[in-house]
Amino acid sequence: MSENPQTVPHQDAAPLTFSFLTLFPELLAPFADEAIVGKARGRGLVDVNLVNLRDFAGNRHQKVDDTPYGGGAGMVIRVDVAERALASLPAADEVILFSPAGERFTQAVAEDLATRRHLVFLCGRYEGFDARTEGLVTRELSIGDFVMMGGEAAAACVLEAVARLVPGVIGDPQSHQADSFSSGLLDYPEFTRPPEWQGHSVPDVLRGGNHGAVATWRREQALARTLARRPDLLRSAPLTPADTATLSSLGATPEQLSDWGAPPDPPPRRQKRRRTPPSVPDASDT
């Protein structure tokens, strides 16, 4: 998968390489070949290497799993298979195992991984990997508290979340900074044509051309959405005094603001006293 005849080497830095060790590389191939990730590969910004664990089975039947010691349902992927597959790869900055016991994958983790040059991911199936595989990895990740049939879907999520942060992958390098979670808040609502649709109008502020007013409106909308849908995010969001005033107007209590570490409201602006111009004596008085 790493060989792409259309790849043009990136001029500034080596691509960020994602190596996925999986029993089903065909599940990840579309995510590597299409859309933004595919274009980024073509430009030499990222590379995706799909490694079939069966190639390292060590037997003619390409059997990679076995029954668990102690009994129980399901099959377990052998640690020696994982070790041989990892040994076939160049040195990696991180070797990551998808696991329900792993660290929660967040935007902050994605931003951290985007600074690396080679990431290796172990995608389990069946009952997962032999527990001794944990000694071969540097990190364990989970994308949520639910059970899937394998790690490939989680790998696709991580690929898209991390690859889009690589410089040059997205046209506007500032665009991802306003996305949900990147700013610490949920994203503000977006609108496009038509301006009127089934009785719903695009807000006037977005059509008025006042960029300052648009920025203020977007920040207020992001705060309102976060307060209504994910107030837990406000505990770690970088709030400003103006945000505190907005949240108070939206119904946040003093107790909540204190819990979120919100700074005090900005002091009210003092109105300047208008100076009364000196009276001009009437000509008749002189």
Automatic annotation (TrEMBL):
Catalytic EC class: transferase
SUPFAM superfamilies with a match to the protein in the record: alpha/beta knot (SSF75217)
Keywords, in A-Z order: Cytoplasm, Methyltransferase, S-adenosyl-L-methionine, Transferase, tRNA processing
Pfam families, per the entry: tRNA_m1G_MT
Coiled-coil ranges (or none): none
Domain tRNA methyltransferase TRMD/TRM10-type: 17-235
Quaternary structure note: Homodimer.
Described function: Specifically methylates guanosine-37 in various tRNAs.
Descriptive protein name: tRNA (guanine-N(1)-)-methyltransferase
Gene expressing this chain: trmD
